[in-house]
């Protein structure tokens, strides 16, 4: 059982976990377009020397991975062990496309996805939130509605930019990242071999010819070794308590967040082809000091118990089913008549939440 009294005495739960490469010492960090790996220095106390550091996994990537821990495989449905937890399922139906299933659990913007909000569900949410686009927002009502249809939005954040003037924004309540300390580059390389023609002179007649498609291509590779690799997690319990959802709902959001952390750490941490990590030991807490992250089984049992307790605050049925008409975007150069204003969704804007 989680010690909610202890967790209530701190503004946030700070966890950290030591990781190590599952085999050998080398690992492949996250990379960014036009930048590569994120190397930086941690200044020492005297300010004259820096410890070489490396970002192994970004906050954005860890957020995505935490969300996946509660899916049934890759989704879009929820893990059957968490049945009863609300979310919105959308069936996209378009001529010649068949039925495509997606949900607020897998959409990049969760409930803010245009596939969820349009054509009518956004209006329903706005009405239930008492959101008219004028005057102050009733945040207590907004949080209650988000909890009703998808509590994950109150954990991972949501920006309802497609509703009204786009003022409804909830930041992440949980965040995480992985970094390595005292790192060194491990430089190696390889070659892509062509068994037909290493020179690349034999090409497909009429094919789209590109350099390196046919021939042998040598390449360099940079991996890293590190003194230590640490995963950090920050659960903002002040934000969660500010939702004003009542004790059981608050406990559910906290327990579900911690279950996601535990599942992430005990899952197959193969973050990339050459980055297969393993948990070194326990998961110590920096704040509060006496808190110990329970096992996955304990956390799962607690989440199941709280799902049952919070049933009256959830949508009924828990999974809201939507049927969404869709069309294929016109091909470039198509001179057919564009849609009239009457055919466009009301208040449509770019979703950049």
What portion of residues belong to β-strands?
25-35%
Largest sheet: 8 strands, antiparallel
Low-confidence stretches: 338-353
Overall mean confidence score, pLDDT:
91
Q: How many structural domains can be distinguished in the coordinates? A: 1
Radius of gyration, in angstroms, nearest whole number? 24 Å
Order of helices and strands: HEEEEEHEEHHHHEEEEHHEEEHE
Q: Which class best fits the helix and strand makeup? A: alpha+beta
Report the end-to-end length measured between terminal Cα atoms: 36 Å
DSSP helix fraction: 10-25%
How many strand segments? 15
**What would the principal axes of the Cα set say about the shape?**
globular
Number of helices: 9
């Amino acid at each position: 059982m989680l010690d909610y009294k202890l967790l209530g005495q701190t503004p946030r739960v700070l966890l950290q976990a030591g990781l190590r490469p599952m085999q050998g010492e080398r690992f492949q960090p996250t990379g960014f377009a036009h930048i590569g790996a994120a190397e930086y220095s941690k200044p020492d106390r005297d300010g004259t020397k820096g410890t070489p550091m490396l970002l192994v996994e970004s906050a954005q990537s860890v957020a995505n991975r935490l969300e996946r821990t509660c899916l049934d495989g890759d989704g879009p449905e929820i893990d059957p062990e968490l049945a009863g937890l609300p979310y919105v399922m959308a069936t996209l139906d378009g001529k010649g496309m068949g039925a495509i299933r997606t949900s607020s659990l897998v959409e990049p913007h969760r409930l803010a996805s245009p596939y969820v909000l349009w054509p009518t569900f956004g209006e329903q949410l706005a009405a239930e939130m008492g959101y008219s686009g004028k005057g102050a927002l009733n945040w207590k009502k907004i949080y209650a509605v988000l909890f009703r249809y998808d509590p994950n939005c109150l954990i991972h954040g949501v920006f309802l930019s497609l509703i009204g003037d786009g003022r409804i924004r909830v930041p992440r309540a949980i965040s995480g990242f992985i970094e390595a300390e005292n790192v060194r580059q491990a430089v190696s390389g390889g070659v892509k071999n062509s068994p037909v023609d290493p020179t690349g002179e034999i090409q497909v007649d009429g094919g789209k010819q590109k350099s390196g498609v046919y021939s042998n291509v040598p390449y360099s590779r940079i991996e890293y070794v590190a003194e230590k690799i640490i995963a950090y997690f920050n659960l903002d319990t002040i934000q969660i308590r500010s939702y004003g959802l009542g004790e059981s709902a608050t406990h559910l959001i906290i327990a579900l967040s911690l279950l996601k952390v535990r599942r992430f750490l005990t899952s197959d941490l193969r973050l990339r082809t050459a980055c297969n990590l393993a948990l070194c030991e326990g998961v110590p807490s920096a704040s509060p000091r006496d808190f110990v992250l329970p096992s996955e089984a304990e956390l799962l049992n607690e989440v199941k118990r709280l799902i049952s307790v919070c049933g009256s605050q959830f949508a009924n049925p828990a999974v809201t089913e939507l049927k969404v008409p869709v069309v294929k975007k016109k091909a470039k150069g198509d001179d057919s008549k564009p849609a009239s204003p009457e055919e466009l969704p009301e208040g449509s804007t770019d979703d950049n939440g």
